[in-house]
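Thread title: Can someone regenerate the structure for this chain?

I was given the following input by a collaborator and told the matching structure tokens would be attached. They weren't. Posting the sequence so someone can regenerate them.
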Amino acid sequence: MSHPTQGAQGRCGRRQVVPWLAGLAVGCAPPQRLPLPGLVNIVVQLESREYVSLLVKLEAPRRRPAVRVAPGLVAYDGSRILEVSTWPRLDPNGELMRELQVHDVLRDRRVVVTVAPGGDLDDHLDVVNLGDRKALLRLQRVGGHQTWSALDLVTGELTAAESTAPTADFARLGPDRGFSVRLEEQRLVLGLPHAEGGGDLALLDRTDHIVAVHWIAGETVPWERLDPLQARFKSAGSVVARAQGCKIDGDLREWSGDEALAVEGLGHLQQGGYRWQGVRDASFALAARLSPEVLCLAVRIRDDHLLEGQDLLVIDTGQARFELPMPAGPERMVREGLQIAFTDRAPFGAGAEMSLDPSAWTVTEGSVPLRVLYQDVDPGEEPTLLASAPDIPWASLAGVRLPRRGREGVPSAHPR
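Best answer:
Regenerated them for you:
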């Protein structure tokens, strides 16, 4: 994917090439173009010392990109998938050892090294930077002393390293202001050219540092056919709320014009993926409305075998969690902080309309954290679980986004 050259007229009447192109025209020869990235892999470490890895699909300009998230350190550069993990263990003499493993998933090769034996269980071994060939490691001892080392990802050779992390530029040239990955007060932000909402997409909160960023050209992205990526990275979806309330009567026809999030793909499967037969087996769509008094949700479920009391709809805002067994037909329920009306069953499923009191949700930086899950139980089978987003309470990217208009009356946050 590339864009036409831009800029002022150059020699031979040709237009000069803007800096994001691979080079300027030589004589009258046409310039080479640098393909735009179709995917970016971002790995970060959080304040809690957990690692989180993201895949962001960038192939549709001016549209909010699709995001997938994996727990742990999973790096993908277009040709390799590397999983890095660390753990402590005791050797036969009772000495504490810290081991680090680099797993090349596609080649099924593992490099395991022991880093700085001895010390205390409360010492921390962190991967500070992950490059194409080497990883920079930091051992934080109790009391504040730090030891730095560099690991060769291919040979497993471990050598002493400088005591500071390298300065990294996580930008990629492109049209307009290009692409970038940066931290803004511990919030991970992806900068996009010509994108909705000014081009900045907030991804994660409570981020300590960026470990790795890989920009991958669009034509090299094997998004749908690379099973190891599908298995590790799960979709993190969001939906824009309409700025109004709702009537909880179980009639979903009034929601026909609202934006909906479809939860219907392999990236949404959290459990039982090998049994899932596709959209008709189990899937759902989610829409939202928001006012100062109430958060409204509409869920339309598709299920070829609805089992009363066993199939389960789950609403999780981080503030509150509601587990709602599917009824036999239309039914109204009232829980503390929630009113819900289930619709009559359709030939291939059912639906629900609900309102959540302000005590059950919170607004943070322009969004309401939300996960909606559906557990499908078919006769004689183990459950299949689909979710609108992984279980990531520190993610900014999943949930209900506030409408671009009408935010003035929505509270910025509720007490926890």
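The first strand starts at residue 37 and ends at 46.
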